[in-house]
Write a structure and sequence with these properties.
With about 180 residues, the protein is mainly α. It is built from 6 helices and 3 strands, in the order H-H-H-H-H-H-E-E-E. It has helices at about 5-15, 20-35, 40-55, 60-75, 75-90, 100-110; strands at about 130-135, 145-150, 170-175. Strands 1-2-3 form a 3-stranded antiparallel sheet, with no helix packed on it. Helix 2 packs parallel to helix 4, helix 3 runs antiparallel to helix 4 and helix 4 (about 60-75) runs antiparallel to helix 5 (about 75-90). The relative contact order is 0.10.
């Protein structure tokens, strides 16, 4: 049901009682999966590294693939390629990683080239929470609508998928000076 935060909490509770290294390794891997699937890549790396130390790759070589995916998302392209190569060396399907290796190489070369666009964070609108699906309101260039799980969301319940408040709809308007209102 995509309740990865709840699953992570349960795996963390189960880990101390796991007696065998194979059980702990599987729990570490599953924790890495939970955090990767909710885009918490720093946490996923921590748990994948523990799973590697516990040699879970002997049971499931997807460990290297998914560890590489988290590294890729964090912009650590060279490290991701190393993990993708380990995945194939342990018997993983080469066609699963060929496109990803090329994407890592392309991203690294593009990062080193001169940029045509400058992207900056709009701190008036963005939050540390899930902000997504921004759209202009009724075609108006001075009003936007988006969803967010920021703390101003209605209700006190926590979404088991995101680990944050349930999403709500927000809007912001731009004044004549170009400044966006607080959502």
């Amino acid at each position: 049901n995509r309740g990865y935060y709840d699953a992570a909490r349960m795996y963390k509770q189960a880990e101390p009682s796991a007696r065998k290294l194979e059980q702990k390794a599987r729990i570490f891997y599953q924790l890495g999966e939970c955090y990767r699937l909710v885009a918490d890549y720093p946490q996923s790396l921590e748990w994948y590294e523990k799973a590697i130390t516990a040699q879970y790759f002997n049971t499931n070589n997807d460990l290297y693939l998914n560890y590489g995916l988290s590294l890729m998302e964090m912009g650590r392209w060279d490290d991701a390629v190393v993990q993708f190569n380990k995945f194939t060396s342990k018997g993983g399907a080469k066609n699963k990683v060929d496109g990803r290796i090329k994407a890592c190489q392309d991203a690294a070369s593009k990062k080193n080239s001169k940029v045509k666009y400058f992207v900056e964070n709009m701190i008036d609108l963005n939050s540390a929470f899930f902000d997504l699906s921004l759209s202009y309101s009724h075609g108006k260039a001075d009003q936007i609508v988006f969803t967010s799980s920021r703390q101003a969301s209605a209700g006190a319940f926590v979404d088991p998928i995101t680990g944050e408040s349930f999403m709500d709809i927000f809007f912001s308007e731009r004044d004549k000076k170009g400044k966006w209102s607080t959502p």
